[in-house]
Description:
By secondary structure, the protein is an alpha+beta fold. Helices cover about 45% and strands about 20% of the residues.
Amino acid sequence: MAKVEFQPGTKPLRGKQGQWLFRKWGDEYRVSPLPDYSKRIASEKQTANRQKFRQAAALASARQDDPVWQAACQRLARERGCSMRSAAISLAYREL
């Protein structure tokens, strides 16, 4: 990873820019090539877990207008100190 210094008055880059990844590391910015995941093969458990997570996210989105569901998600989000979306997906994941 290479260190990057931006000129005064320019906005530092963060995230993916083309084939490069810009990261903030403390007070410094670093750049590295994007990782290549095309040759990785997921295990059966990983594939099953990803599918279950997709289903949980879809279920959480479908239930977002339900007031009982919203109350449960708000309670969990407060307890964990996380976002409502994270809490909703967590609750839906447990139900599957």
